[in-house]
């Protein structure tokens, strides 16, 4: 018997070329192939009479040939020909004319007087007719007709039929697929066995069996995921590190220009109490944009420094790292915390020198991008790793950070509001502190949705805001003009605004294709109010702090995910003045409108995420992949939330009872593998 780990090359007919095609679908082994789930199904089980056939609704029907197939050839341009075969079939209810184009071979197998099972829909014609139906002899039906057909993800050169055949071959080679989940769980959650579920997902015998198979496979996927997180967590909590004894931060609090909110203080207290335990911390701080996460991170870094430990503080962009550095250096230097900024745009010799000093322990707090932990930087006594705006970080990266950071504490800060139920599972390897309160005096950001007809009023509003000495962000979905000119490009729009619309205002431009130093210069200038309007792409999405900006206009707003729009909106409303967010879109799609209007209705990111999850699932709110939530093969976070909860409970119980089979452990390792992370 073949093993699931055997290469698909062991299948007859799979040579190097086919193997490469399969590899593009992530299929290398027989086991991978068995878990190449269909992306869809075509239900061909419905059987009707000819009379019941309909246009656009393919169905099966059983009928006999009442005429001989007639084939004739029609010449076409370029010397090619079109071969047309026609004949008539009938059942007890009616007659039907069938036409095959260029299918002489298929049609040649049909014989007058014989009965076949056909599958097709009526052509939109004045007389009942059908073109190129599928068919098989009645006695042998079940391969093409009267079944639920799997539809696989494909790649160039690989046909659905070829995948079906190879899946069948893999099944016969591997024999019965052994069970991975504990038997008790199958009974408890009414799940079919692995072997049954895998067969049914590829070749379902009914919609009910397919649904049961899906449920089982989704459960298993979630189970593996939850178990991986639990093991990650267990592994971390088994480690030890020096307990911090110096956690008195009175001078830090006194140096702040404001009083921390109760929620900020709670998050800091959570962290300080973690520090005293002598176990490496893994904590997620979730707080909506503007909730003041930076100060929580700063407090943690000060505490680490007081205990002789260095902190690596990583931001997703250089601009943000730069901003954090500017803020924290001036705040913390007087407290004796030595700060450094290490970014890719430093000159090589400056960078080398800085690295040397970091390695010698001359800095307590090092700010940089996420490259900080992956590049050649070494620390003399790294005690704390902070990642800001963690929503671009998935489970694999977390595992990697844990592994790299060794005994260092891990603090992850995220502004992506995730419903609590989901967060508890998705971040099962972490402890969570939620900052559910904004600093006092924050006003809600009035949000409006407008279309092009409002352009003039919009421009007047920009003039009004800038005349009051405030600044304005304008976000465009593209950097350069696109071919269709349907999207506003930052470059072009900035130019139009400067030369034609606001010649008396200072318009500047920021986008991701600019060099790091250039971007920083533009941001710094804007923050210093050397420009009135900043036209930008989504590079400003994360963290950038310009309290004097009171208006953000988002062009082609329908192009952005809800989460991203909420993040962008958080760029304003950071000062004392009333702030506004204006979404510009001509898109009248009802789903789009509903999404954009949801944003107008509330400023609360957590509520938005919860509403959105309930309405549509994470597909929209967590639209782009930047959310950092894992993408599952078959499970869907929103649709299968209840199953996710069950799987998590089951995984926790199975781990506690020591019931993880070698196959499950193998799957769990696979999940964390991309991070070069080895479970002990
Ligand atoms: P986040 O990273 O959570 O989006 P920031 O840390 O950038 O938010 O803080 C947003 C703004 O609020 C900053 O200008 C910061 O100085 C200010 N801020 C933070 N905490 C407080 C507080 N307790 N009271 C008043 N202002 C605060
Ligand atoms: Mg922030």
Write the layout of secondary structure elements.
Elements: H1 16-24, H2 30-34, E1 40-43, E2 59-65, E3 70-75, E4 81-90, E5 95-101, H3 104-108, E6 115-120, E7 129-131, E8 134-137, E9 148-151, H4 160-174, H5 183-188, H6 194-202, H7 207-238, H8 250-255, H9 262-275, E10 282-287, H10 293-306, E11 310-315, H11 318-332, E12 339-342, H12 348-359, E13 365-369, E14 382-387, H13 395-404, E15 409-414, H14 420-426, E16 431-435, E17 446-450, H15 455-467, E18 471-475, H16 490-501, E19 507-510, H17 516-527, E20 533-536, E21 549-554, H18 562-569, E22 580-584, H19 590-601, H20 605-616, H21 618-621, H22 641-656, H23 662-673
Parallel strand pairs: 5-7, 10-15, 10-16, 11-13, 11-14, 12-13, 14-15, 17-22, 18-20, 18-21, 19-20, 21-22
Antiparallel strand pairs: 1-9, 2-4, 2-6, 3-4, 4-5, 6-8
Helix pairs in contact: 6-7, 7-22, 7-23, 9-10
The chain binds adenosine-5'-diphosphate and magnesium ion.
Structural description of this entry:
Strands 2, 3, 4, 5, 6, 7 and 8 form a seven-stranded mixed beta sheet that branches. The protein has a seven-stranded parallel beta sheet with strand order 12-13-11-14-15-10-16, sandwiched between helices. It has four domains: 1-43 and 159-175, DNA polymerase, domain 1, CATH 1.10.150; 46-146, OB fold (Dihydrolipoamide Acetyltransferase, E2P) (Beta Barrel), CATH 2.40.50.140; 250-435, Rossmann fold (3-Layer(aba) Sandwich); 445-602, Rossmann fold, CATH 3.40.50.300. By secondary structure, it is of the alpha/beta class. It is built from 23 helices and 22 strands. Strand 4 (81-90) and strand 5 form a beta hairpin. 38% of the residues lie in helices and 17% in strands. Bound molecules: adenosine-5'-diphosphate and magnesium ion. Adenosine-5'-diphosphate binds next to helix 10.
């Amino acid at each position: 018997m073949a093993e699931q780990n055997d290469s698909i090359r062991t299948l007859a007919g799979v040579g190097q070329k086919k193997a490469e095609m399969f590899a593009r679908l992530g299929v290398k082994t027989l086991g991978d192939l068995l878990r190449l789930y269909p992306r869809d199904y075509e239900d061909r089980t419905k059987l009707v009479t000819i009379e019941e056939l309909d246009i656009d609704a393919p169905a099966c029907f059983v009928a006999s040939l009442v005429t001989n197939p007639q084939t004739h050839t029609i010449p076409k341009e370029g010397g090619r020909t079109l071969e047309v075969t026609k004949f008539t079939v009938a059942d007890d209810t009616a007659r039907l004319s069938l036409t095959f184009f260029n299918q002489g071979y298929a049609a040649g197998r049909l014989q007058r007087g014989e009965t076949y099972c056909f599958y097709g829909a009526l052509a939109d014609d004045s007389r009942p007719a059908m073109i190129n139906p599928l068919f098989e002899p009645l006695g042998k039906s079940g391969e093409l007709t009267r079944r639920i057909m799997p539809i696989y993800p494909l790649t160039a050169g690989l046909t659905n039929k070829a995948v079906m055949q190879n899946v069948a071959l893999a099944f016969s080679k591997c024999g019965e697929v052994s069970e991975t989940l504990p038997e008790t769980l199958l009974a408890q959650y009414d799940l079919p066995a692995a072997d049954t579920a895998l067969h049914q997902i590829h070749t379902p015998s009914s919609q009910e069996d397919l649904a049961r198979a899906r449920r089982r496979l989704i459960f298993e996927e979630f189970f593996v995921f939850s178990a991986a997180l639990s093991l990650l967590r267990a592994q971390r909590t088994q480690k030890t590190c020096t307990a911090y004894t110096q956690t008195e931060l009175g001078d830090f609090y006194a140096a702040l220009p404001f009083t921390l909110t109760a929620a900020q203080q709670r998050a800091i207290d959570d962290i300080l109490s973690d520090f005293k335990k002598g176990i490496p911390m893994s904590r997620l701080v979730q707080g909506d944009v503007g909730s003041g996460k930076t100060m929580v991170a700063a407090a943690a870094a000060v505490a680490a420094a007081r205990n002789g430990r260095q902190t690596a503080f990583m931001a997703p962009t250089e601009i943000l790292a730069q901003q954090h550095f500017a803020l924290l250096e001036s705040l913390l230097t007087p407290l004796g915390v030595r700060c450094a900024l290490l970014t890719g745009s430093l000159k090589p010799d400056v960078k080398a020198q800085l690295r040397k000093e970091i390695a010698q322990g001359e800095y307590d707090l090092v700010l940089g991008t996420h490259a900080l932990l992956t590049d050649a930087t070494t620390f003399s006594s790294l005690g704390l790793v902070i990642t800001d705006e963690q929503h671009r970080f998935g489970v694999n990266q977390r595992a990697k950070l844990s592994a790299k950071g060794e005994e260092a504490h891990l603090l992850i800060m995220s502004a992506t509001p995730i419903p609590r139920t989901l967060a508890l599972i998705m971040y099962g390897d972490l402890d969570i502190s939620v900052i559910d309160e904004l600093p006092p005096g924050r006003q809600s950001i009035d949000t409006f949705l407008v279309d092009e007809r409002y352009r003039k009023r919009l421009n007047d509003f920009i003039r009004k805001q800038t005349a009051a000495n405030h600044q304005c962000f304008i976000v465009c979905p593209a950097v350069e003009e696109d071919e269709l000119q349907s999207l506003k490009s930052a470059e072009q729009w900035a130019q139009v605004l400067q030369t034609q619309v606001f010649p008396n205002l200072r318009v500047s431009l920021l986008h991701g294709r600019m060099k790091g130093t250039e971007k920083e210069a533009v941001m710094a200038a804007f923050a210093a109010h050397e420009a009135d309007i900043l036209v930008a792409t989504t590079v400003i999405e994360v963290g950038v702090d310009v309290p004097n900006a009171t208006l953000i206009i988002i062009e082609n707003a329908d192009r952005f995910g809800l989460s991203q729009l909420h993040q962008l909106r958080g760029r304003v409303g950071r000062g004392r003045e009333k702030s506004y967010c204006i979404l510009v879109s001509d898109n009248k799609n009802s789903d789009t409108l509903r999404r954009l209007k949801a944003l107008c209705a509330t400023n609360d990111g957590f509520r938005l995420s919860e509403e959105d999850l309930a309405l549509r699932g994470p597909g929209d709110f967590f639209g782009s992949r930047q959310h950092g939530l894992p993408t599952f093969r078959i499970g869907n976070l929103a649709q299968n939330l209840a199953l996710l909860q069950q799987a998590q409970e089951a995984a926790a119980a199975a781990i506690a009872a020591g019931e993880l089979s070698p196959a499950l452990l193998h799957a769990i390792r696979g999940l964390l593998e991309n991070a070069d992370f080895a479970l002990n």
